[in-house]
Amino acid sequence: MNNKSDVLIVGGGVVGLFIAYYLNKKGYEVTIVDEGPMKKAASYGNCGLVSPSHALPLNSPKLMWKATKWLMKPDSPFYIKPQLNFSMMQWLTQFALNSSKASIERAMHGRHNILQSSRQLYDQFLAEEKINCDWNDKGILFLFKHEKTFYDYEKVNEKLISEIGLAAKPFAEKKLIDFEPAIREDVFGGFLYENDASLKPDKLITSLNTLLKERGVNFKDGVKVNTFNTQKDQVSEVITSNGEKLKAHHYILAGGALSPLFQSQLGIKIPVKPGKGYSITMQSPKYSPKVPCIFEERKVVATPWGNSYRLGGTMEFSNYSTVLNNKRLNALKKGAAEYLKEPFSESEYEEWTGWRPMTSDELPIIDFSTGHKNLLVATGHGMLGVSMAPGTGQLIAELLSNQKTHINPAFYSLKRF
Q1: I want to staple 8 with a disulfide (CB 3.0 to 4.6 A). Which of 68, 196, 219, 248 is the partner?
Q2: What does the mean pLDDT of the chain come to?
């Protein structure tokens, strides 16, 4: 068997799959190596938002101030497990420093470019491929329990309109309930981003796997990459957990939050930390909302998919912990109960936790390695892997083919660190 491909992708989550999709369209022979199982990946258990609305990064000055109150509360939206970890302390310091006005502006424009690109590419992809992933393009509703937070966000909305042309439709009091009857009457208002969409991530991943296999992409599932071997300024091969040596002309590291585990082997810096998220999937409540809702004061998301429904959110920094923390799972239900008449059902299908790949400036890394001319890195998409995946795939295909890129790649440079 010939174990040499044009491109070998390490990581079969949504980002790796869309990279393979666009490379395959350009005629590359592609192999994907993924240790699985799919249920462990952030691509699987997220709330399936495709959200150009998320142009602003998390580390705004206002959120940083709130975070100082949340840090040590185990059920808060933002939690850091007490730990002696110098690397984590460095990352958090840089995260805080990136809340400056200049850093926020840069992140906003970089995020907007790839989010808007991906939203358009989703339309093209779904029109061409006709796959079923419970696509809903009716928007995403940001909800505000209190009048003050609603009007505070109105200023954010005005900023997004003036700077990047991103507008939301406001609803307050009775108009909000008329639009979405599932919302409690004591919720003051909301903003609907009509260009946003949602999908069921496990259906998307399963369909993409099937599609790519039909088109000749080679999958090595349930196999872990243990070692990157290098010669001079190139990666020469990877060695897998079953001892197989896989060679390619080009390599792409798209391992999500696991990508930094290879940085010492490769001699490069990949400053990504695992930000742990949680979700609960269940049968839809009787009065389920018709579009995904984000409960802004609680940082919880509810996404409806026909007969199923998911609550998700929270950001926990506890290194690579896989423990399902019941306090944080219950916080999702408690948060939803403040906004919805019927926030959840008792017919639960699955409780989930997984790691999001977080960078300190809230921009992904999509670039050639600083030390290897045949290696590209695609990670650091944070909570927006599904939202940014098509744009990432298209950009990687353009960079590898030495073509003019459809968006400015400078925002996602590895050299910025």
Answers
A1: 248
A2: 93
Instruction: Give the orientation angle of helix 385-400 with respect to helix 101-129, to 10 degrees.
Output: 80
Burial class for 240, CB neighbours closer than 10 Å (0-12, 13-18, 19+): middle
List per-block mean pLDDT (blocks of 10 residues) for the chain, which spans 417 residues: 77 97 97 85 90 91 66 73 84 90 95 98 97 96 97 93 95 95 97 98 96 97 94 95 95 97 94 96 94 96 95 92 92 96 92 96 97 96 97 98 97 95
CA distance linking residue 360 with residue 99, whole number of Å: 10
Comparing C-alpha atoms, which of 179, 193, 186, 267 is closest to residue 230? 267
79/195 Cα distance (integer angstroms): 31
Distance CA 117, CA 102 (A): 23
Kindly report the pTM of this predicted structure: 0.95
For the chain, list the domains and their CATH numbers. Answer: 1-55+98-134+198-272+361-417 (3.50.50.60), 56-83+135-197+273-358 (3.30.9.10)
Is the distance from CB of 177 to CB of 340 less than 8 angstroms? Answer: no
- Which of 385, 393, 392, 325 minimizes the C-alpha distance to 46? 385
**CA pair distance 298, 164, nearest whole angstrom:** 26
